[in-house]
Design goal:
The protein is α/β, with parallel strands linked by helices and 632 residues long. The protein has 3 domains: 3-45; 50-339, Alkaline Phosphatase, subunit A; 462-631, Leucine-rich Repeat Variant (Alpha Horseshoe), CATH 1.25.10. It is built from 23 helices and 12 strands. It has helices at 3-18, 24-45, 74-82, 96-105, 109-112, 131-136, 216-245, 273-276, 309-316, 387-397, 403-406, 437-453, 462-469, 474-477, 485-496, 503-509, 515-528, 536-542, 548-560, 567-574, 580-593, 601-610, 617-631, and strands at residues 50-56, 84-90, 140-144, 160-161, 176-181, 252-258, 277-283, 299-305, 342-346, 356-360, 364-369, 415-419. The strands form 2 sheets. An 8-stranded mixed β-sheet has the order 4-3-5-1-6-7-2-8. Strands 9-10-11-12 form a 4-stranded antiparallel β-sheet, with helices on one face. The chain is globular.
Length: 632
């Protein structure tokens, strides 16, 4: 609005005010309308920033800007001097698809039932990928090229999504939101033929973490991974130079981050700092310096979660926030107060079943393991394609590891607590130490509150989630009011606690009318092993439970109590299930049984061969189990 127009309006208001026939209230309303219109026009005329994302895969903050002296990352280090660097940025999950769900929706995948790796469960109609709102506000949206959002795609949110997608295809003067994804640092880049290349980083100087043994293969894979980081940095530099050459750098806010931590074993797929803490650098040009949370070169300790990215981008673009978002913006005019905790989740990873949650504040990381009887080092076909992974397992079998390195191959504790300032590698578990009781209690309560507030769907076995999804979105199912989430969580807590004092109550709940409560009660008996002997009769009845997954859990518990004859027919039946998650659960019980599973060796082998062409999750577990049975 021009100064001349503003002066004209003010003269009109003055004239109206001098007329006795015009009431003061009317004049006041006109004045309010005038200033509202002035604000609205100014808002429309304010140029919205372009926003560009540079996204790498599977890497922790292996950058010189984060103090890593072994890293060779000059382009991203320079970006950090020009922007702000976040010290406490965290992925929502330690694997790509579930964490990318949080990025694209601003919601926790655990709340929508999409926490399990490569699940494509449906979402409610109102949940849109956030670029849709940018597009509606006039932005050109492009994605190059990875999606992997762990739910059904919404391709309409992009003006272009391809290997050639770029902001350059927008209309003249149109603001853009553009993503460039690099696979250069992906886990696959340290596997197979990639590992045989000449190394640029010296393996003997590689910063091998204390939870890894320093085998030649481990050293070489770490060196190779830093080579891949250097290559990715060069690619990021090309994107930045291209932006500069286009004349758009002064109108563009640039983000660099990784989709989760990793990529070597115990990083990706695990709820530690090594799997969840990510690099995050944001550069604000001078034109938008007023939107920056700090001066160029600043290092910020504010906690940021991936679930906050969508609302933050909408806030920077001055787009109203949809009500279903669970994240809080940390940038822009709608920025919220800093969060106290970052929450993360773990479900099925590739073909292996597991369940865990993590809470992180500025000093401590808390991990709750709900299936503690499953070792961290469950055999994942894809992960074992790295020579470093094989060498670690071989060193364990040879008895060559210390306590920190052996932890990966043993059943998990129910709770883990780490002082990340004193113990950045998370190897000294403080849970159970008297001097940390109050911290443990605080973090445990924060986790419990989050699970209830977000209506966590992960405590429903995936075998059931898959069936619910055929009828309605899991997100909606959890909000019908019919599912007893609080009772289920209470049962899961007892089941995973490893405390024999809960046997009586768990035995009682084996007969609960809610199948998920029966399932978790059976899992509690699995965890307790022979300490759950008094529940044997009740468990035997569950072998006839209406739900297959409850039968499988009961069978596993009974095997721990010395039963084999009753268990094998149940497992044989469920190997033929039409539900692949029931099949995987049955295979994992047989894997636990070792030589006692030999009577079903042919069924396992047939199942492996049947699914060989698709390399599905069932086939991967079956092939691994078949090899184990042959060796025995």
């Amino acid at each position: 609005m021009s100064h001349k127009t503003t002066y004209t309006y003010l003269r009109q208001f003055g004239a109206l005010a001098r007329k006795r026939s015009v009431r003061r209230a009317h004049v006041l309303s006109l004045v309010c309308w005038f200033f509202y219109s002035l604000s609205a026009v100014a808002e429309v005329q304010e140029e919205r920033p372009n926003i560009l994302w540079i996204v790498s895969e599977d890497n922790s903050p292996f950058l010189g800007a984060y103090g890593d002296a072994y890293a060779t990352t000059p382009n991203l280090d320079k970006l950090a001097t020009e922007g702000v660097l976040y010290l406490n940025a965290f992925a929502a999950a330690p694997v790509c698809a579930p964490t990318r769900f949080a990025l694209i929706t601003g919601m926790y995948a655990s709340s929508a039932g999409t926490l399990h790796h490569r699940s494509t469960y449906q979402l409610p109609e109102q949940v849109k990928f956030f670029p849709q709102y940018l597009k509606q506000a006039g932005y050109y949206t492009s994605n190059n090229v990875k999606k992997d959002y762990n739910t059904k795609d919404q391709p309409q949110v992009w003006d272009e999504s391809s290997k050639k997608a770029t902001y350059k295809n927008r209309k003249p003067g149109q603001p853009f939101f553009s993503i460039f994804n690099f696979t250069t640092t992906h886990e696959s880049q340290i596997q197979g033929k990639n590992r045989a290349q000449k190394l640029g980083h010296d393996p003997k100087k590689a910063p091998v973490p204390p939870y890894h043994p320093r085998t030649p293969e481990m050293e070489e894979d770490w060196a190779l991974y830093y080579d891949r980081m250097q290559a990715m940095d060069a690619e990021a530099g090309e994107i930045l130079r291209e932006l500069e050459a286009s004349g758009l750098a002064e109108n563009t806010i640039v983000f660099y981050y990784s989709d989760h931590g990793g990529a070597l074993a115990r990083g990706k797929r695990f709820l530690y700092e090594s799997g969840l803490r990510v690099p995050l650098i944001i550069r604000f040009p001078k034109k938008y310096a007023h939107l920056a949370p700090g001066k160029p070169g600043a290092k910020l300790d504010r906690i940021v979660s991936f679930v906050d990215f969508a609302p933050s981008i909408l806030s920077l673009a001055n787009v109203p926030l949809p009500s279903h978002l669970q994240g809080k913006p940390f940038l822009g005019k709608q920025a919220a107060a800093p969060r106290e905790y970052a929450y993360s989740y773990k479900g099925r990873m590739d073909e292996r079943l597991d369940l865990g949650r993590s809470v992180r504040n500025k000093k401590y990381r808390y991990i709750r393991n709900y299936l503690p009887h499953r070792i961290p080092g469950q055999h994942v076909d894809y992960q074992w394609q790295a020579s470093s992974m094989v060498s670690w397992e071989n060193a364990y079998k040879a008895g060559q590891l210390n306590e920190a390195q052996s932890f990966f191959w043993k059943p998990k504790p129910a709770e883990e607590l780490y002082d990340v300032e004193a113990d950045p590698h998370n190897i000294h578990n403080l849970a159970g130490k008297k001097e940390y009781e109050s911290v443990l209690r605080e973090m445990r309560q924060a986790n419990q509150k989050w699970l209830l507030e977000t209506k966590d769907a992960g405590f429903i076995p995936e075998a059931m989630l898959a069936e619910i999804n055929q009828k309605m979105p899991i997100y909606d199912y959890l909000r019908t009011g019919s599912f007893p989430l609080e009772r289920v969580l209470e049962t899961a807590d007892m089941a995973s606690s490893r405390e024999a004092k809960h046997v009586k109550e768990l035995t009682k709940r084996l007969q609960d009318k809610e199948p998920v409560v029966r399932y978790w009660s059976a899992i509690g008996c699995v965890v307790l092993g022979k300490e759950a002997a008094s529940a044997k009769a009740a468990l035997q009845k569950l072998l006839q439970d209406p739900l297959a997954i409850v039968q499988v859990a009961a069978a596993e518990a009974l095997y721990g109590l010395g039963e084999t004859t009753r268990v094998l027919p149940v497992l044989r039946q469920h190997l033929q299930s039409q539900n692949r998650f029931v099949q995987i659960a049955a295979l994992e019980v047989l894997e636990k049984m070792g030589k006692d599973a030999q009577p079903l060796a042919q069924e396992v082998k047939a199942l492996s061969a049947k699914d060989e062409e698709t390399s599905g999750d069932v086939a991967k577990v079956a092939r691994y189990l078949s090899r184990q049975l042959v060796q025995r």
